[in-house]
Amino acid sequence: MKQLVIATKNAGKVEEFRDMFSKYQISVKSLLDFDQEIDDIVEDGETFEENATIKAETIAAEFEIPVVADDSGLEIDALDGAPGIYSARYAGEDKNDQRNLEKALRELNNVPDQKRTARFVCAVAVARPGHETFTVRGTCEGTIARHPKGEGGFGYDPIFVPLHSDRTMAEHTSDEKNSISHRKHAILKIEEWLQDLS
Ligand SMILES: O=c1nc[nH]c2c1ncn2[C@H]1C[C@H](O)[C@@H](COP(=O)(O)OP(=O)(O)OP(=O)(O)O)O1
Ligand SMILES: [Mg+2]
């Protein structure tokens, strides 16, 4: 079994990478699996790609191994793309999913249904010692619901209704989410690299 480190401390992301990488015979190790304490990485880039690169290169340099990182978030059109790269800390430094989605709903309180369009964005960076880092991006278009619904997924999934669906992402099974998500679309773009990994 091939192994890949994902430079994330987000358990929801880890589970999705595990599920989606299993078909490439890749087992996933995340920052949650290291015995030593790993400091939080400062994500001070101006784009998803910059932040994914910072995370991947920090861990690749520290452990001298190939690393994949994910920087992702929700862009809401009626809020000019907010929360965007600030999605994790939208309602405060404690990165609370529930408070984040409640804040998004509050901001959209007076916004009619047809103007509630949004998309999930995921930039994936691949960093390897001695190689140039590269990034890819996947997106998932949808709308913001009026109320949270569903127990699956993580983050903003309870308020995000993907295009062509009448359920929130949190009401999708993990297999359903992993076939349409921004993360899936990003991973498809590194599929060849994943297959060639030794
Ligand atoms: O599929 C998703 N379904 C719902 N919400 C999502 C998704 N994907 C990203 N999101 C939200 C969660 C968080 O508010 C932000 C990611 O922030 P982001 O900095 O990339 O991740 P993080 O800080 O949780 O973990 P880490 O940096 O260790 O990978 O976007
Ligand atoms: Mg983060």
Based on the coordinates given, report the CATH architecture: Alpha-Beta Complex
Mean pLDDT: 97
Structural classification: alpha/beta
CATH topology (fold) name: Maf protein
The general outline is globular
Q: What fraction, in percent, of the residue positions are helical?
A: 25-40%
Please tally the β strands and state the result: 6
Order of helices and strands: EHEHEHEEEHHH
- Chemical compounds bound to the protein: 2'-deoxyinosine 5'-triphosphate, magnesium ion
- Largest sheet, spatial ordering of strands: 2-1-3-4-5-6
Contiguous runs where pLDDT drops below 50 for at least 5 residues: none
Can you identify the CATH class?
Alpha Beta
Estimate what percentage of residues fall within beta strands.
Answer: 15-25%
Q: How many helices?
A: 6
Radius of gyration: 17 Å
Instruction: Describe the largest sheet.
Output: 6 strands, mixed
- Give the N-terminus to C-terminus distance in angstroms: 9 Å
Binding site for substrate: 8-13, 72, 154-157, 177, 182-183
Protein name: dITP/XTP pyrophosphatase
Keywords: Hydrolase, Magnesium, Metal-binding, Nucleotide metabolism, Nucleotide-binding
Binding site for Mg(2+): 71
